[in-house]
Design goal:
Elements: E1 4-8, H1 13-24, E2 28-33, H2 45-48, E3 58-62, H3 68-78, E4 82-85, H4 92-97, H5 99-119, E5 125-131, H6 154-173, E6 177-182, E7 185-186, H7 195-209, E8 213-215, E9 221-222, E10 225-226, H8 227-238, E11 246-248, E12 254-255, H9 256-266, E13 271-276, E14 279-284, E15 290-294, H10 312-318, H11 326-338
Parallel strand pairs: 1-2, 1-4, 2-3, 4-5, 5-6, 6-11, 7-10, 8-15
Antiparallel strand pairs: 9-12, 13-14, 14-15
Helix pairs in contact: 1-8, 3-5, 5-6, 7-9, 7-11, 9-11
Bound molecules: NADP nicotinamide-adenine-dinucleotide phosphate and ligand F7E.
The site of NADP nicotinamide-adenine-dinucleotide phosphate (NAP) has 27 residues, from α1 and β5.
Length: 339
């Protein structure tokens, strides 16, 4: 019998890579999509338009994780072996502007799934998309499953509720539910307002049209991996015999500025840095044009200054380690945006 998976957030970056992986592993994949005024399935179209998959391997259902009825109706209809809960308002800065919606979706959305599985008495295994944002302003040099959480954004705080409610239902009702504490992961399919994609897209527009782009805090450091490697880790987490919360990370950290200058180096663009009106400008030495500059409007009310994860436990328990290094990630994203 083929395994059946249900993915919330299937139209997102991770949802699309996970769908590809599960279809390769011969799963039937069901996904929840939201109705929107413009089509939002572009990351899935290559799969959905493939006649070998449509109606046989990939099934999409309209729903919304803020709607308990649609969430439990879909779970009841699909009766999945595995649920991957990836749906979220996933933008940290936007969470300061939509704190209540972020809490309803990112915190209570997870609760709605757990309640449905409990009430329907299903044996479904649940993966919950947790995040390194839980560590917030913790000053640890490297973060693991043992590190104290200290979130500083409405997003991080909503995700902390989701993390804890997963543990609560696991212990109270013996539900197989695991949190993957994933550090930043990127790809050519990354949303265009996250910093790595903003940079690779911004540089490709600069090359094609000579337009500059703007960024916020260049000194924040992140542990960036490739989304393809991380969805493989999600699947591995659900193949364990017993549920476990695990960190997935590369163990390396770089600043936003380093990501930008690595892209410039890959593109062989020579530049100088200049401060004008307190804003940092990156200027093309060939033509004296501005490539990129900072703008305070992209700063956050609270910042997470530094993240670096240890995924030693994931190496031991699920034999996971990332396959794509930082330079390959930069290359893949730039090459894709230049096309
Ligand atoms: P993403 O690209 O922003 O995708 C989010 C998905 O959630 C989209 O499919 C979106 O649908 C869906 N969604 C939004 N609101 C919804 C609602 N009310 N009901 C149902 N679905 C809804 O995020 P991602 O980068 O793939 O991340 C996947 C998950 O991992 C998220 O939970 C994120 O918070 C978490 N996470 C991400 C990272 C990372 O670095 N990428 C790291 C740690 C944790 P639309 O297409 O309709 O908007
Ligand atoms: O910001 C700085 C910004 O928005 C990274 C989500 O997937 O990973 C992601 O959250 C850093 C921050 O990702 C701009 O201030 C500078 O320090 O790409 P980001 P994030 O906030 O780390 C975690 C693990 C998740 O769980 C989230 O869902 O870059 N930064 N200038 C900027 N960030 C953005 N977005 N735009 C800028 O112009």
């Amino acid at each position: 019998m083929k395994k059946v998976a249900l993915i919330t957030g299937i139209t997102g970056q991770d949802g699309s890579y996970l769908t590809e992986l599960l279809i390769k592993k011969n799963y039937k994949v069901h996904g929840i999509i939201r109705r929107s005024s413009s089509i939002n399935t572009k990351r899935l179209d290559h799969l959905f338009n493939n006649k070998n998959f449509r109606n046989k391997k990939l099934f999409l259902h309209y729903g919304d994780l803020t709607d308990s009825i649609s969430t439990s109706n879909i779970i009841s209809k699909v009766r999945p072996n595995e649920i991957y809960n990836l749906a979220a308002q996933s933008h940290v800065k936007v969470s300061f502007e939509t704190p209540m919606y972020t809490a309803d979706l990112d915190a209570l959305g997870t609760l709605r799934i757990l309640e449905a599985v409990k009430n329907l008495k299903l044996k479904t295994k649940i993966y919950n998309a947790s995040t390194s944002e839980l560590y917030g302003d913790n000053k640890a040099k490297i973060m693991s499953e043992e590190t104290k959480f200290s979130p500083v954004s409405p997003y991080g705080i909503a995700k902390l509720y989701a993390f804890e409610i997963v543990r609560c239902y696991r212990n109270a009702y013996n539900i197989f539910a695991s949190n993957g504490i994933l550090f930043n992961h990127e790809s050519p399919r990354r949303g265009e307002t996250f910093v790595t994609r903003k940079i690779t897209l911004g540089l490709s527009n600069y090359i094609k049209q000579g337009k500059y782009f703007e960024l916020g805090n260049l000194s924040a450091k992140r542990d960036w991996g490739h989304a393809r490697d991380y969805v493989w880790g999600m699947w591995k987490i659900l193949q364990l015999k017993k549920p476990l919360d695990l960190v997935l990370s590369t163990g390396k950290t770089y600043s936003v500025e380093y990501f930008l200058t690595s892209c410039l180096k890959y593109l062989k663009i020579k530049f100088k840095k200049k401060i004008i009106n307190k804003q940092i400008h990156f200027i093309d030495l060939k033509n004296n044009k501005i490539i990129c500059k900072t703008n305070n409007k992209y700063l956050r009310p609270n910042e997470v200054p530094y993240l670096k994860g240890s995924s030693l436990l994931a190496r031991k328990t699920i034999n996971w380690k990332p396959k794509t290094n930082f330079n390959l990630l930069v290359k893949e994203m730039i090459d894709s945006d230049l096309k």
